[in-house]
């Protein structure tokens, strides 16, 4: 997925008052981010998976934490009370093993649904995710 689509969706989510956590999976920096450091103000938090990855966020405004990706299930434990809102979880990214979508699926409690939005780059991994999600 092109970075500009992710930034567009992040801007839309920010306008809706959603919590935004920025991640870097080492795909390279888009020129828009290099020229617009204030893009960091749209996110509540940035998560890096290594010191090298943390460097990618060094010039952006906002807090940067290092965690094992994509979700540190010991640090981040969302509330699943809906207060009338959907409790679905959306993850954006290519379907590749290093993205760690399998960790999200294994850590989900009953109730919330995970929607992974992105290309099915690795068909074997996609089938594996479907096996994990069944039942």
Provide a brief overview of the structure.
The chain has about 140 residues and is an alpha/beta fold. It is built from five helices and five strands, in the order H-E-H-E-H-E-E-H-E-H. It folds into two domains: about 70 residues, no CATH class; about 55 residues, no CATH class.
Description:
The protein has helices at 3-15, 31-35, 51-56, 101-107, 123-133, and strands at residues 21-23, 45-48, 64-66, 89-92, 114-117. Strand 2, helix 3 (51-56) and strand 3 form a beta-alpha-beta unit. Helices cover 31% and strands 13% of the residues. It has 2 domains: 1-67, no CATH class; 81-135, no CATH class.
List keywords for this structure.
two-stranded parallel sheet; 135 residues
Integer count of domains: 2
- Supply the helix-strand structural class: alpha/beta
Order of secondary-structure elements: HEHEHEEHEH
Major sheet description: 3 strands, parallel
